[in-house]
Amino acid sequence: MTLTAAAAGTFTIGAFTDHALTVNRLGYGAMRITGEGIWGEPKDKPAALATLRRAIELEVNLIDTADSYGPNISEELIAEALFPYPASLVIATKGGWERVGPGKWTHNASPRHLTAALEGSLKRLRVDRIDIYQLHVPDPAVSFEASIETLARLREEGKILHVALSNVTREHIQRAQKIVPIVSVQNRYSFADRESDFIIDYCEQQRIAFFPWAPLGQMREAHDALNREAEALHASPLQVALARLLQRSPVIIPIPGTSNPKHLEENVAAASLQLPQAAFDRLSALKFPPASLRG
């Protein structure tokens, strides 16, 4: 397998806007470069920095992060490792979900907080404008429209190039589109967790990029199916899972994360793994209960 993210092909994010961004279809998720519980500094900071630099060497040109990863640590490490950034690099970050302790999250998507969160991300990433700024998750205590209107205003001020969403329903996307162009959606999705299938179909229709997280899923029988296909293809289960995502839809841009350069290389190699149609069909035909119904 070829060791370059470019082998996955490209997708143009925001092709329907005046500021299109073309990226290779295998990105990098920078949540795992923080400490345990997504809290604090990583145990091996040199390895985290080396992983980020190796990603660029492997032609990964989309990095996804958030102010809550650490908190702040992920964005700071990205800047430390990569600034000044390559001209082709697109950085997507998020705001609206705070990290208050190891493994603990809390909602805060108020206009005031989102404005402050964006300013913090600009400072930590050492940029004047965020390429893609995502509402991390809708806040049940705040009007969804108020959150999106805040991001639209910040976009008009030139501090955000593109507005995007994370952890949303199709209804959320449609409501947001009435306020501002939405260029990407990030939801949990894998071959064993397909609750966002119809959202992916909507994204295809709208030319919206889809960033899936948790590409392996969490079920033993799902892993067993991956193991069987991986053995036949002389690949790893994660590579098969990523290849299936790439073949599921041209708008999907997987963003697997790791803090280990060798694991990163394994992930990137999946960009050139073409599943035989029979293997893709077998994985796609498997039926699993929705995550919300699993015990």
General description of the model:
The structure is a single chain. The chain has helices at residues 45-57, 73-82, 111-125, 144-156, 170-177, 197-206, 220-233, 237-248, 261-269, 277-285, and strands spanning 10-13, 21-24, 28-29, 62-64, 90-95, 97-101, 104-107, 130-135, 160-166, 182-188, 209-213. With 295 residues, it is an alpha/beta fold. It has one domain: TIM Barrel (Alpha-Beta Barrel). The strands form 3 sheets. The protein has a 7-stranded parallel β-sheet with strand order 3-4-5-8-9-10-11, with helices on one face. A hairpin with a 2-residue loop joins strand 6 (97-101) and strand 7 (104-107). Helix 1 crosses helix 2 (73-82), helix 1 (45-57) packs parallel to helix 9 and helix 7 packs across helix 8.
Task: Sum up the structure in keywords.
7-stranded parallel beta sheet, 295 residues, two-stranded antiparallel ribbon, single chain, alpha/beta, TIM Barrel
CATH class: Alpha Beta
CATH topology descriptor:
TIM Barrel
Mean pLDDT: 95
Shape: globular
Q: How many discrete domains?
A: 1
Number of strands: 11
- Judging by the overall fold, what is the CATH architecture? Alpha-Beta Barrel
Strand order of the largest sheet: 3-4-5-8-9-10-11
Strand content: 15-25%
Structural class: alpha/beta
User: What's the Cα radius of gyration?
Assistant: 18 Å
**Helix coverage percent of residues?**
25-40%
Structure in a nutshell:
A hairpin with a 2-residue loop joins strand 6 (97-101) and strand 7. The protein is of the alpha/beta class and 295 residues long. It contains ten helices and eleven strands.
